[in-house]
Write a structure and sequence with these properties.
The protein is mostly helical. The protein is built from 4 helices and no strands.
Length: 74
């Protein structure tokens, strides 16, 4: 799952070079809708409290994936 997040970040960085608005809610939504429901739930809850950009959302997702992996291996 980490590799998938990194692929999305690379694509977004490329889009940013072409002046595409990466913080567009539609683009972030496309990214978030592919997540497992356990991670998506947390991301949606936090994004409702305050607006997050793409990179902030991606960072949160990476953190949640890491936490989920740690819990699974405990």
């Amino acid at each position: 799952m980490d590799k998938d997040v990194m692929k999305h970040i690379c694509v977004v960085n490329s889009l940013q070079k072409w002046k595409v608005a990466i913080d567009d809610p539609f683009l972030i939504g496309l990214f978030v809708e592919k997540l497992p429901s356990s991670i998506m739930k947390v991301v949606v809850r936090k994004s409702r409290k305050r607006e997050m950009g793409f990179m902030e959302t991606a960072s949160l997702i990476q953190e949640l994936i890491s936490e989920q992996r740690d819990v699974a291996s405990a």
